[in-house]
């Protein structure tokens, strides 16, 4: 089948290559000429394990091409819209400019029977608005909503072997229902290979499909903030949040995943999506229903300040003190620094007068774009040299696997103090190697808070 994918960012580029690998004839279209050139040459514009291999393989097969020209969409039967919906302003609402522009650019190229399929994360009601527009500018074309749940770092796997396929289609009147059924059948054809493996397929109305995505992200963010709130309780009482998470996680109704306490969530999705979801609920007159997401956001942001407070307590004042921050990406296996908790910590440490050196295995260049003043080290050891406190802010395997005894890191630092802001280090091994380890939500810094000595409370 001939397919176009409008928007070749994270979501669109991986989707385009993924669809080509299913045997479709795909064109990816983006307004950013530099990005399109990179993709054409088989270079991923972002770090994503497995993506570059897939991209090259599909370019070589002849089934995948990229263009900046919107007319390249002409002739395709299914048109995926995968452009960004960033946070608009302080209100938190989503900026739909790119989505509306993509549909407007597509409209004159659509033929009757063509299907536009939204993949972008949008406020509920957007699909209906776009469909109403299409009825005027491209009668005979239809629209469906097919949200995407891919995680950075697992984008290829999540695209080709998703947990579920959600298809939002038209319905209501018999005529609309018939169109919706036809649209769902077309999407079944697109995803035939994936469906053949038994992937659950859920067909619903457009509004529910839009909500599925925002609800899923809101739930995930809530789960993380819940465990981080428990962290605060643990720190006040000397309890251990990792043992707590293990124990409650054994209840299948709760589950252990996404109960990783630490520096909290960041990235291009969860923070902006919960804010946009709240803003949309306010517009709809049901703001109270999502009031709790304000608390979820606040708990999350408190983690960042808390880590800086801990560094301040450990150093006895940050002005002129050397701090190493290991990990700058918002999560491991990614070079993405959008709303990165690690970068927020760097910025706050710097604002309080610390001399910060940062290191990340992949995200260094992107971090410099956001914080041009950042002193970027080439290795973790470089960053740690003469540091009075080391903060592990992203749980890259490279840091988790550091042998605290054999690595020689202790000899490099001015003071062997480490804040494990992701609960990823083997605390006993680090303590045995002579480090003062402060792990978030694991009791130990109750003493730091009270006496500043770092000695665990009795
Ligand atoms: C997320 C959703 O998982 C995905 O389904 C959606 O399509 C897009 O948003 P992503 O932003 O790639 O994906 O990252 P994810 O792996 O979900 O992590 C989000 C943030 O939460 C990261 O900053 C991560 O460090 C943090 N996190 C995750 C925790 O703090 N604790 C956890 O237990 C899990």
UniProtKB/TrEMBL annotation:
<feature type="binding site">
    <location>
        <position position="30"/>
    </location>
    <ligand>
        <name>NAD(+)</name>
    </ligand>
</feature>
<keyword id="KW-0520">NAD</keyword>
<dbReference type="InterPro" id="IPR036291">
    <property type="entry name" value="NAD(P)-bd_dom_sf"/>
</dbReference>
<comment type="function">
    <text>Catalyzes the conversion of UDP-glucose into UDP-glucuronate, one of the precursors of teichuronic acid.</text>
</comment>
<comment type="pathway">
    <text>Nucleotide-sugar biosynthesis; UDP-alpha-D-glucuronate biosynthesis; UDP-alpha-D-glucuronate from UDP-alpha-D-glucose: step 1/1.</text>
</comment>
<dbReference type="InterPro" id="IPR008927">
    <property type="entry name" value="6-PGluconate_DH-like_C_sf"/>
</dbReference>
<feature type="binding site">
    <location>
        <position position="35"/>
    </location>
    <ligand>
        <name>NAD(+)</name>
    </ligand>
</feature>
<feature type="binding site">
    <location>
        <begin position="149"/>
        <end position="152"/>
    </location>
    <ligand>
        <name>substrate</name>
    </ligand>
</feature>
<comment type="similarity">
    <text>Belongs to the UDP-glucose/GDP-mannose dehydrogenase family.</text>
</comment>
<feature type="active site" description="Nucleophile">
    <location>
        <position position="269"/>
    </location>
</feature>
<feature type="binding site">
    <location>
        <position position="331"/>
    </location>
    <ligand>
        <name>substrate</name>
    </ligand>
</feature>
<dbReference type="Pfam" id="PF00984">
    <property type="entry name" value="UDPG_MGDP_dh"/>
</dbReference>
<dbReference type="GO" id="GO:0051287">
    <property type="term" value="F:NAD binding"/>
</dbReference>
<dbReference type="InterPro" id="IPR014027">
    <property type="entry name" value="UDP-Glc/GDP-Man_DH_C"/>
</dbReference>
<dbReference type="Pfam" id="PF03721">
    <property type="entry name" value="UDPG_MGDP_dh_N"/>
</dbReference>
<feature type="binding site">
    <location>
        <position position="272"/>
    </location>
    <ligand>
        <name>NAD(+)</name>
    </ligand>
</feature>
<dbReference type="Pfam" id="PF03720">
    <property type="entry name" value="UDPG_MGDP_dh_C"/>
</dbReference>
<keyword id="KW-0560">Oxidoreductase</keyword>
<dbReference type="GO" id="GO:0003979">
    <property type="term" value="F:UDP-glucose 6-dehydrogenase activity"/>
</dbReference>
<feature type="binding site">
    <location>
        <position position="338"/>
    </location>
    <ligand>
        <name>NAD(+)</name>
    </ligand>
</feature>
<feature type="binding site">
    <location>
        <position position="152"/>
    </location>
    <ligand>
        <name>NAD(+)</name>
    </ligand>
</feature>
<feature type="binding site">
    <location>
        <position position="213"/>
    </location>
    <ligand>
        <name>substrate</name>
    </ligand>
</feature>
<feature type="binding site">
    <location>
        <position position="266"/>
    </location>
    <ligand>
        <name>substrate</name>
    </ligand>
</feature>
<dbReference type="GO" id="GO:0006065">
    <property type="term" value="P:UDP-glucuronate biosynthetic process"/>
</dbReference>
<feature type="binding site">
    <location>
        <begin position="258"/>
        <end position="262"/>
    </location>
    <ligand>
        <name>substrate</name>
    </ligand>
</feature>
<dbReference type="InterPro" id="IPR001732">
    <property type="entry name" value="UDP-Glc/GDP-Man_DH_N"/>
</dbReference>
<dbReference type="GO" id="GO:0000271">
    <property type="term" value="P:polysaccharide biosynthetic process"/>
</dbReference>
<dbReference type="InterPro" id="IPR036220">
    <property type="entry name" value="UDP-Glc/GDP-Man_DH_C_sf"/>
</dbReference>
<feature type="binding site">
    <location>
        <position position="121"/>
    </location>
    <ligand>
        <name>NAD(+)</name>
    </ligand>
</feature>
<dbReference type="InterPro" id="IPR014026">
    <property type="entry name" value="UDP-Glc/GDP-Man_DH_dimer"/>
</dbReference>
<dbReference type="InterPro" id="IPR017476">
    <property type="entry name" value="UDP-Glc/GDP-Man"/>
</dbReference>
<protein>
    <recommendedName>
        <fullName>UDP-glucose 6-dehydrogenase</fullName>
        <ecNumber>1.1.1.22</ecNumber>
    </recommendedName>
</protein>
<feature type="binding site">
    <location>
        <position position="85"/>
    </location>
    <ligand>
        <name>NAD(+)</name>
    </ligand>
</feature>
<feature type="domain" description="UDP-glucose/GDP-mannose dehydrogenase C-terminal">
    <location>
        <begin position="324"/>
        <end position="427"/>
    </location>
</feature>
<dbReference type="InterPro" id="IPR028357">
    <property type="entry name" value="UDPglc_DH_bac"/>
</dbReference>
């Amino acid at each position: 089948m001939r397919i176009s994918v409008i928007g070749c960012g994270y979501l669109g580029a991986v989707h385009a290559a993924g669809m080509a690998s299913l045997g479709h004839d795909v064109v990816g279209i983006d307004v950013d000429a530099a990005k399109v050139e990179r993709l054409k040459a088989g270079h991923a514009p972002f770090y994503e394990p497995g993506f570059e291999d897939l991209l090259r393989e599909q370019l070589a097969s002849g089934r995948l091409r990229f263009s900046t020209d919107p007319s390249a969409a002409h002739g395709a039967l299914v048109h995926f819209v995968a452009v960004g919906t960033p946070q608009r302003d302080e209100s938190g609402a989503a900026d739909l400019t790119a989505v509306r522009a993509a549909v407007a650019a597509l409209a004159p190229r659509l033929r009757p029977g063509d299907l536009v399929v939204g993949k972008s994360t949008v406020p509920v009601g957007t699909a209906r608005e776009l469909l109403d527009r299409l009825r005027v500018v491209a009668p005979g074309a239809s629209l469906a909503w097919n949200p995407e749940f891919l995680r950075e770092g697992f984008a290829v796997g999540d695209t080709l072997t998703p947990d579920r396929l959600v298809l939002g289609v038209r319905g209501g009147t018999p005529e609309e229902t018939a169109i919706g059924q036809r649209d769902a059948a077309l999407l079944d054809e697109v995803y035939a290979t994936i469906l053949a493996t038994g992937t659950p397929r859920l067909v619903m109305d457009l509004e529910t499909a839009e909500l599925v995505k925002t609800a899923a992200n809101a739930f995930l963010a809530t789960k993380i903030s819940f465990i981080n709130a428990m962290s605060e309780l643990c720190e006040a009482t000397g309890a251990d949040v990792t043992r707590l998470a293990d124990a409650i996680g054994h209840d299948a109704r709760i589950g252990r995943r996404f109960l990783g306490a630490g520096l909290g969530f960041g990235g291009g999705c969860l923070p902006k999506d919960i804010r946009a979801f709240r803003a949309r609920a306010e517009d709809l007159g049901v703001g109270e229903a999502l009031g709790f997401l304000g608390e979820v956001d606040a708990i999350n942001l408190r983690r960042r300040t808390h880590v800086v407070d801990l560094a301040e307590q450990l150093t006895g004042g940050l002005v002129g003190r050397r701090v190493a921050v290991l990990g700058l990406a918002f999560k491991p296996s990614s070079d993405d620094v959008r709303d990165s908790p690690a970068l927020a910590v760097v910025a706050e440490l710097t604002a309080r007068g610390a001399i910060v050196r940062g290191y990340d295995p992949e995200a260094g260049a992107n971090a410099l774009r956001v914080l041009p003043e950042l002193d970027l080290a080439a290795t973790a050891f470089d960053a740690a040299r003469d540091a009075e406190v080391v903060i592990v802010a992203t749980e890259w395997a490279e840091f988790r696997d550091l042998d605290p005894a054999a690595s020689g890191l202790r000899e490099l630092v001015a003071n062997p103090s480490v804040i494990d802001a992701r609960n990823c280090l083997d605390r006993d091994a680090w303590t045995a190697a002579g480090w003062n380890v402060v792990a978030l939500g694991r009791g130990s810094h109750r003493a730091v808070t009270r006496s500043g000595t770092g000695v665990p409370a009795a």
